[in-house]
Amino acid sequence: MITDSLWTAFGPSPLTQEDFEYFAGKIKKLSGISMKQAKLDLIKTRLTQRLREHSYKNFSDYRNYLETLPDTHEEWQEFINILTTNKTDFFREPDHFHFLIQYILPKWLKEDKTTFHIWSAAASTGEEAYTLAMILKHYLPPGRDFKIIGTDIDTKVLKTAENAVYSLSKLHEIPDLYRDECLDIGEREAKGWFRIKAHLKEKVTFVPHNLIEASFVDDKGAPKIFDLILCRNVLIYFDKKTTELIAHKLYEHTIDQGFLFIGHSESFQGCTHSWLNHNSSIYQKAKRA
């Protein structure tokens, strides 16, 4: 082990190619995230703080530690949390929400259904899920309800999502239309923060889930089925094979003629899948014969 003063002065030894390949291989196995050679500096930067917390002088020591751990050890979740990327905003990529308001909801309201079900499949710190809750609260008429499930592989960000408290610096992301109805602005000791109002928060549930693992099931073991799934700005981290696996999984969790939104910079081009391409980042499940 190395003292804090020496660690501060010199930091860890360089990340070797062998150690990089081990860490990249592990995150691929655990999460499906593909980290190629260009991500070496990213892995080094993100793991450096973990090395310091454990007082390891080099990445090989941390690797040796990981190699001794069973698959169920809590350190693996910390490893995943460190190496996953969690950039998100309220009302990010607004064209998707315009499509929900102008096309999906009017179509759904003509059907004999009472509850609109949504899965935010890469929920991060919760902004996407609460954006959806604001929209549905505003546009659904009395007698119609909604439920949103937000999932992420990173357990740390889900705690932020569950707390539903955000810095006031993010308030500009939320249109004025929704603020009075959906937000409580902090005062006194809570100044500088806002929170999602309780009547919206109770409509959203956050649970840990790994997209590359088994189907997302309910308490009875049956696959959860959704009217709309959002899996945005996460597919860019997967290779073709993993993207195809996830595309199939999401398809199985969508109601007939339900929809999937992926990120504007993402595509299923070159992948084998069953989705109908509605436009560049909006897909629809075909109606069963």
From TrEMBL:
Signal peptide: none
Reaction(s) this enzyme catalyzes, per UniProt: L-glutamyl-[protein] + S-adenosyl-L-methionine = [protein]-L-glutamate 5-O-methyl ester + S-adenosyl-L-homocysteine
Biological processes, Gene Ontology terms: methylation
Domain of life: Bacteria
Keyword S-adenosyl-L-methionine: yes
GO MF annotations in UniProt: protein-glutamate O-methyltransferase activity
Keywords recorded for this protein, A-Z: Methyltransferase, S-adenosyl-L-methionine, Transferase
InterPro entries: Bact_Chemotaxis_MeTrfase, Chemotaxis_MeTrfase_CheR, CheR_C, CheR_MeTrfase, CheR_N, CheR_N_sf, SAM-dependent_MTases_sf
EC numbers for this chain: 2.1.1.80
Name of protein: protein-glutamate O-methyltransferase
